[in-house]
Amino acid sequence: MSALEILLLVAAYFGVLMLISHYTGKNDSNIDFFQAGKKSPWYLVAFGMVGASLSGVTFISVPGWIEGSQFSYMQVVLGYLAGYLVVAFVLMPVYYRFNVTSIYEYLAERFGVVSHKTGAFFFFVSRVLGAAFRLFLVAIVLQQFVFDAWNVPFEVTVVLSILLIWIYTNKGGIKTIVWTDTLQTLFMIVAVVLSIYFILKEMDWTFGEFMVSAEFDKYNKFIFTDSFLERNHLVKSFLGGMFITICMTGLDQDMMQKNLTCKTLKDAQKNMVSFSFVLVGVTFLFMLLGALLFIYADANSIGIPLMDGAPKTDLLFPEIALNSGLGKTLAVTFMLGLIAAAYSSADSALTSLTTSFCVDFLDIHQRPKDQQKRLRKRVHILMSIVLVIVIIIFKYVLSRNIIDSLLTVAGYTYGPLLGLFAFGIFTKWQIRDRYVWIVTLVSVILVTILGNIPPENLGGYQVGYELLPINGLITFLGLVFIRRKKG
């Protein structure tokens, strides 16, 4: 597939998104931008959240991770499932009871202004990094397979990507995203199913033959319980996955903002539970695709693509889809799936960052009515610029697999949120609010030190995704230390 054909496909796809934006953004009000008027059908939100949760990271990085990790990621995904149930039946009732626009407003009600701002700050850092990870991945694919052919700098590719997202979310915000995410999820699921179909057809295999093949046996190890010291041990992966979901979904304004657009708590819970089971199944399909990609590459002597002179397994899927001669249908399917997966998470991230900054830091609801919309639009532009800068920085500092990097960073940035919300929900104590920022800062510093201790200094123990609950526990204990004494 030529660079021009890919570019025309991207343009056509964004034309459809712009059409949706036109109809959903007619009102252009803050209530629609932030909450979609509280009228979103739960099943629409549930389906759209699949694409937003998986993103371009899952679409490319999970298949590219199979060679090095086999199916160990499914241990984390099963932990996700448990985490979603906690979100649905522990956190959601709290948010609906307090009727919040930003979920960090709960911290203001429970503890005070400093806790509110501290929670919003950690979300802001977490979501900027998370969205940048996801957009970085699609940007390097577009760069390698489209813009390099025309000598367009990577920085320009990033600016164009963010500009397109800004354009179609500028008016409708979350109301637009509820609908665009639904379309994007559909494209992504169709893409992975058709990719598996076309590669199996090329290899003259049925799906059943693939599943029982000797080649698949090299990649399909699912459960890892050999040594608790390893970072991919079942217990560590499952618990890490559960807490990652609680934090990256339940304590994340980006993901919860969609749920808070549902009419009732019951609708939001139906959305969360149904979405969680679909997500597990779709992720498993991506892992099957990853094994199939490596088997196909070995059979056809396709090497791992290079990026800056080093092998980059994240680029194997696009290399096979676009350059291995499997036909235009697979190439078109891949590009639609990639674009859908990447932008379904990035557009909602831009909207949630705008929402959180306006509500949590600028107190937009306290401003005069005639200033609120203008302020929101300015913040929307500012958040776009921030994402551009961070993505460009990533090009020069990232070396690990993207999804591994994303989940590792979550351990540092979401831990304080876990501790704050857990303390608020599961205790009745009040705290000395002005010291909260010190507690969370100390927690991050301690966890950073722990995460960088060489395994040989810990008896061979490799610290993995359990950093997140450890971070949350340290924050929780720190809050106990600054609680107010009775009387």
Describe this structure in words.
The protein is mainly α. Strand 1 and strand 2 form a beta hairpin. The relative contact order is 0.18. The model has no long low-confidence stretch (mean pLDDT 83). The N and C termini lie far apart (73 Å). It has a two-stranded antiparallel ribbon with strand order 1-2. The protein has helices spanning 3-24, 30-35, 42-69, 73-98, 105-110, 113-145, 154-169, 174-202, 207-211, 214-217, 234-250, 253-259, 265-299, 316-323, 328-361, 369-397, 402-413, 415-426, 436-451, 467-481; strands at residues 306-307, 310-311. Helix content is 74%, strand content 1%.
How does the SSE layout of this entry go?
Layout: H1 3-24, H2 30-35, H3 42-69, H4 73-98, H5 105-110, H6 113-145, H7 154-169, H8 174-202, H9 207-211, H10 214-217, H11 234-250, H12 253-259, H13 265-299, E1 306-307, E2 310-311, H14 316-323, H15 328-361, H16 369-397, H17 402-413, H18 415-426, H19 436-451, H20 467-481
Antiparallel strand pairs: 1-2
List keywords for this structure.
2 strands, two-stranded antiparallel sheet, 487 residues, 74% helix, mainly alpha, 20 helices, single chain
